């Protein structure tokens, strides 16, 4: 079997991209790191691609109005540098180092990863952890979707087939915030399980906390019970251990209900404790 015919359009501006997507059957070609292997696989059906790599205005990264705004051609590797400051920059730098290897990070884009919506991928987890907003545009206009509603199932999002992800907006994290990430990858391309955390301490107590469990269900999930337990507590071994236990017991409802569940819960407890402990170390460093 040979691979299928690919109908290819190279767009030069946003209007050309949106016009190409209007048929609802065209795929966006960004970094190509997930799409190209799919469309060139032997036996894959014919497809139509719109290449966005010549649209210069898509390569934008800006911090305005309390948000970091990331455009469709910002590559993973951008976040390896100190392009973004503060705790948000820390989280992006820690996370990007886990993604693939240097050629993947040089070509692949953050928005491509959000659109692809692999349930264990790093950028969707960052978006859910930080309550990011995903901005979509089609020929009929723009709309903004909160990250938690954007990821609906593995490889499935709220994006309509004629829409382009034009921006992801991440809130800048306040002073006194520490971030943490821990994963169990075991030689696979994507992590088997991971936990991501941000903790903000104000006047000695936790004033904001986000904990996200990655690959515990069809999309990244916030550990709301654990977050509630952390709010108002002092940041200590005891509060971290208690929150990690609550996350494993109460926030893993979407794990498959089979014999592996107790073991997976223990894994999430360990990962949550590590992510929260990493965040605590960073809070201590900036105090
Ligand atoms: C060997 C290998 C290892 C990898 N390891 C990891 C890893 O550890 N962690 C991780 O998270 N990822 C990993 N990846 C995936 C990588 O991060 C991809 O770059 C990413 O998933 C897709 O980004 P892209 O720009 O390459 O998108 P593409 O491959 O161009 O597109 C992916 C999908 O998103 C759509 N799309 C892209 N951009 C837009 C847009 N702006 N609007 C609407 N739709 C859009 C495309 O149509 C397509 O359906 C790995 C990939 C490989 C090949």
Provide the fold topology.
Blueprint: E1 6-10, H1 14-21, E2 26-29, H2 35-39, E3 47-51, E4 61-64, E5 67-70, H3 86-96, H4 102-107, H5 110-116, H6 122-129, E6 133-138, E7 141-146, H7 147-150, E8 151-153, E9 156-157, E10 164-171, E11 177-184, E12 193-202, E13 205-214, E14 221-222, H8 224-230, H9 237-250, H10 261-286
Parallel strand pairs: 1-3, 2-3
Antiparallel strand pairs: 4-5, 5-10, 6-7, 6-10, 8-9, 11-12, 12-13, 13-14
Helix pairs in contact: 5-6, 8-9, 9-10
The structure holds flavin-adenine dinucleotide.
Keyword list:
alpha+beta; Uridine Diphospho-n-acetylenolpyruvylglucosamine Reductase, domain 3; 3 domains; 27% strand; five-stranded antiparallel beta sheet; binds flavin-adenine dinucleotide; 33% helix; four-stranded antiparallel beta sheet; Uridine Diphospho-n-acetylenolpyruvylglucosamine Reductase, domain 2; 14 strands; Enolase-like, domain 1; globular; 287 residues
């Amino acid at each position: 079997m040979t691979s299928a015919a690919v109908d290819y359009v190279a767009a030069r501006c946003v209007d050309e991209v949106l016009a190409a997507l209007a048929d609802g059957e065209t795929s966006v070609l960004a970094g190509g790191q997930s799409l190209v292997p799919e469309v060139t696989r032997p036996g894959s059906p014919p497809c139509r691609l719109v290449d966005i790599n010549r649209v210069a205005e898509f390569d934008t990264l800006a911090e305005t109005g309390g948000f970091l705004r990331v455009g469709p051609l910002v590559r993973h590797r951008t976040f390896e540098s100190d392009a973004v400051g503060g705790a948000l920059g820390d989280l992006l730098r820690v996370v990007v180092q886990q993604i693939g290897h240097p050629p993947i990070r040089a070509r692949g884009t953050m928005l491509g990863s959000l659109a692809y919506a692999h349930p264990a991928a790093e950028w969707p987890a960052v978006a859910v952890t930080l309550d990011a907003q995903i901005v979509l545009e089609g020929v009929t206009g723009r709309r903004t979707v909160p990250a938690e509603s954007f990821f609906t199932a593995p490889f499935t999002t709220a994006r309509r087939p004629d829409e382009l992800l034009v921006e992801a907006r991440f809130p800048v994290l306040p002073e006194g915030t520490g971030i943490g990430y821990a994963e169990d990858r075991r030689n696979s391309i994507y992590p088997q399980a991971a936990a991501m955390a941000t903790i903000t301490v104000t006047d000695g107590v936790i004033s904001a906390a986000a904990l996200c469990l990655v690959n515990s269900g069809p999309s990244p999930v916030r550990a709301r019970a654990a977050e509630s337990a952390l709010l108002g507590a002092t940041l200590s071994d005891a509060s971290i251990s208690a929150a990690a236990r609550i996350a494993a017991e109460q926030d893993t409802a979407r794990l498959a209900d089979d014999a592996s569940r107790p073991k997976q819960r223990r894994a999430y407890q360990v990962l949550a404790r590590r992510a929260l402990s990493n965040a605590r170390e960073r809070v201590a460093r900036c105090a």
